[in-house]
């Protein structure tokens, strides 16, 4: 059984096989992402009730919270992929990590910007050196550091190892972001969605937020496959199968 699973993993991790399968999977992620995103935004911005404390300004959470969740989720995916690439020498894993970094950086930037826009009316300032905000900013710098190492080192294998090591070491920042509001005295509000014993959100607010979270994950899946396919073509450009593919176009 293990040999069959490992054989399937090795077959799927083949750049040629991945390129063929991923092209068929992209629409299955992209179309639901678009539909759920439109539905979630409509429900969150126009249907969900007004918050009794924050007023209409709270609606930015339907973008901010999924972006913040994705910033951490993508970094974990990137770190795991980098570890797989380093340990088992699977080239596709390094390509997935490399393809994920810019997407994760954009989600992190979006989380910081939307958080600042929410912070102005709530805290009276666009930015405070709050533990949650600071650790999220460090996450953005980790993404930048990974991408900088990828682009500055000429040898691809060396670049993958150096940037992968940074990604693996930097993953320690993820639990710091998650638990910062519990570990330190912070302005950032605590957990609301995860409090299943006593939910802090009205169901009409919670549903569009979760829909947006699912849409964000599907969006990431579609975009990372597109970027990974481009990465495969670039890194495998001297392979015969890539030359044959180009000739058919």
Structure description:
The protein is mainly α and 249 residues long. Helix content is 78%, strand content 0%. The protein contains nine helices and no strands. It starts with a helix and ends with a helix.
Primary descriptors:
9 helices, 0% strand, 249 residues, 78% helix, mainly alpha
Helices, strands, pairings?
Layout: H1 2-12, H2 15-47, H3 61-88, H4 91-123, H5 131-152, H6 156-170, H7 173-183, H8 203-235, H9 240-248
Helix pairs in contact: 2-8, 3-4, 3-6, 3-8, 4-5, 4-8, 5-6, 5-7
Offer a quick outline of the entry:
This protein has 249 residues and is an all-alpha fold. The chain has helices spanning 2-12, 15-47, 61-88, 91-123, 131-152, 156-170, 173-183, 203-235, 240-248. The two termini are 40 Å apart.
Radius of gyration: 20 Å
Helix proportion of residues, in percent? over 70%
Span from first to last CA? Answer: 40 Å
How would you spell out the order of helices and strands?
HHHHHHHHH
Beta strands, count: 0
Secondary structure class reads: mainly alpha
Indicate the multimeric state: single chain
What percent of residues are in strands? Answer: under 5%
Give the overall shape.
globular
């Amino acid at each position: 059984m293990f040999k069959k699973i490992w054989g399937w993993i090795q077959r799927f991790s083949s750049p040629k096989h991945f390129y063929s399968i991923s092209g068929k999977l992209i629409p299955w992620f992209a179309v639901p992402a678009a539909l759920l995103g439109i539905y979630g935004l409509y429900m969150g911005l126009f249907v969900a009730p007004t918050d009794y404390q924050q007023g209409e300004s709270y609606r930015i959470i339907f973008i901010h919270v999924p972006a913040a969740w994705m910033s951490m989720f993508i970094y974990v995916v990137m770190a795991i992929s980098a570890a797989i690439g380093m340990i088992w020498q699977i080239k596709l894993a390094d390509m997935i990590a490399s393809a994920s970094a810019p997407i994760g950086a954009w989600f992190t930037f979006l989380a910081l910007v939307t958080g600042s826009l929410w912070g102005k009316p709530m805290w009276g300032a666009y930015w405070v050196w709050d533990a949650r905000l600071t650790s999220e900013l460090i996450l953005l710098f980790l993404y930048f550091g990974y991408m900088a190492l990828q682009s500055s080192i000429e040898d691809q294998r060396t670049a993958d190892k150096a940037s992968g090591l940074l990604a693996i070491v930097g993953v320690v920042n993820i639990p710091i972001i998650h638990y910062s509001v519990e570990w330190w005295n912070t302005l950032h509000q605590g957990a609301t969605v995860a409090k299943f014993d006593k939910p802090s959100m009205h169901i009409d607010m919670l549903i569009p937020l979760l829909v947006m979270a699912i849409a964000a994950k599907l969006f990431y899946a579609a975009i990372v496959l597109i970027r990974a396919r481009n990465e495969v073509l670039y890194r495998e450009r001297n392979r015969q199968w890539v030359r044959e593919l180009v000739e058919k176009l």
